[in-house]
Amino acid sequence: MSTPMMSTPVSISIPGNTLAQSSMPSSLRLAEFSETCPNAPTPSLNLVDRELKALVQQYLQRFHIATTITPEVTQQYLRQFYIHVVQHSYLKSPSLFKRIDRLDHRNQVLAYILGFELVKMVFQMSWQQHERLCDLQRSQEDFLVRYIRPIQEAHRLNHVVVPRDQDLFFARRDYFVQRPKLRPHQLEILAIATFTAETVLALGFEVIRHPESFRFDYGEIFEVKEMHSLGLS
């Protein structure tokens, strides 16, 4: 299994910086994108593989993610993929647009949807829930390095979770059990800033091909028992 590319977590100002501006409503951003890059392909949706769409929808339900893959959602994610790729590209080259065009024709947008929804889900977990999620994985260290550490570093750098007095047990538990409070737009900005589009695609495809590559137990992660809430887990 190839190792997905990861970007270094960055501190961003939400809103008001370049990244926030680049994540404006897709229709406006695409108009700007097309003017800057006239050779960019126009987003269009070919027939989406119905079986693959149904499979991805089942996975979203398995992860208790409420997103429904409608034509509008698919179009929105296809547009977002343009933004995401450009955000991590130092040069707008023809090969970039070929990659985007292949995403459309090969229905890879479905893998991107799944990967991005999973990233958003993990971004909204507390660090204690990260620990529980990681404990479920076959390769815990690999999962930690690929996904958990970049997300926690983004939390820390952007003051979403603020660790204080880490050497003091009770102080640590206070921030450790706190679930991040992120508005949808903030969540998208952080996810795009933290992971490349290639990483998100790789995650989606990995789950589609090997469901056990991302082990998940909603009750174990989210349904906190009284002893957990008291910091005794």
Secondary-structure blueprint:
Elements (H helix, E strand, L loop, with lengths): L17 H5 L3 H11 L13 H13 L8 H17 L6 H12 L3 H15 L3 H10 L3 H18 L11 H8 L7 H11 L2 H13 L8 H5 L3 H4 L4
Helix pairs in contact: 2-4, 3-6, 4-5, 4-6, 6-11, 7-8
Task: Please describe what this structure looks like.
With 233 residues, the chain is mainly alpha-helical. It has a domain at 18-124 and 183-222. It has 13 helices and no strands. The chain has helices at 18-22, 26-36, 50-62, 71-87, 94-105, 109-123, 127-136, 140-157, 169-176, 184-194, 197-209, 218-222, 226-229. It is globular, with a radius of gyration of 18 Å. The model is unreliable at 1-8 and 10-43 (pLDDT under 50).
What is the structure about, briefly put?
With 233 residues, the chain is mainly α. It has 13 helices and no strands. It has a domain at 18-124 and 183-222.
Largest sheet: none
Question: From N to C, what is the helix and strand string?
Answer: HHHHHHHHHHHHH
Average pLDDT, all residues: 75
Q: How many beta strands in the DSSP annotation?
A: 0
The multimeric state of the shown protein is: single chain
List keywords for this structure.
disordered N terminus, globular, 233 residues, single chain, 61% helix, 13 helices, 0% strand
